[in-house]
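Lay summary. Proteins are chains of building blocks that fold into shapes, and those shapes determine what they do. In this project we predict the shape from the chain. Here is one chain we studied, written as its sequence of building blocks.
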Amino acid sequence: MIDYIKLNDKQLKHLQDELLILLVELDRICNKHNIKYYLAYGTLLGAVRHKGFIPWDDDIDVQMLREDYERFCDVCNKELDKEIFFLQTQETDEFYNWVYGKLRLNKTSYIRAGQEHIQQKDGIFLDILPLDKISNNKYKIAIINFVCKICRKILWSQVGKRNSGNASLRYLYKLLSYIPRNLVTRIFEKTAKWDKEKETSLIASHNTFKQIYRSKFYEERILVDFEGMKFFAPEGYREILTQVYGDFMVLPPYKQREGHCSASYIKFTDGTEIFLNKNIGGI
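And here is the predicted shape, written in a compact code that computers can read:
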């Protein structure tokens, strides 16, 4: 059983403030270069229901259509202030095994519990999740989802070989960890982008969430309030949130109103640190 940091209200607000710095920077770059992005998942839900963070939420997710995601990655090579920010992808960090990008704050740390041994660059981050066109053929969808899932499992094997629940799984992940990372990445991207050149009525998230949406939900964007500022959301946000959360305007039971901070160590830009079961620096 892996233990995580339990943030108090002050710590959570500090983390949210740092996350907002990242979202503002992403929004600035996207607006400057006409790159479309959309608030996603809990961030979108927070904007709609709370006009900001869900009070107990501790991360930010944005989505981009694949072509915008690739343009964003290219633009960041010149646009990002490298002293402050770092765009983490498999191209910019040889030890990063996730299939989507993270925009991180330099001079901070956010180390996931159970991943202390991973050599990837750490830091407080927001997730940038690409969306891919996908055929409405159910057999093709099943094949694409299966291959992408297997690739994600192989890439996660560096974590799984230490932290899986039983010895057999740890041994399996250890074997999987010997498969060359670049090969798995190529297979994943080729599969995820199978229908890239086609006009389709569906788009899919092949990242950590298996979600398929109607393309029309993302055809237009609207501005929504988030922490006193305006950011972009898909015009079909109601349908998207209903698909993901059901009756999304209803608050969960009180006992479920807690974040899912998965860190064992956090360091903020002001040098304040939070250790698992130990707080330092006045927070």
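What the prediction tells us: The two ends are 26 Å apart (CA to CA).
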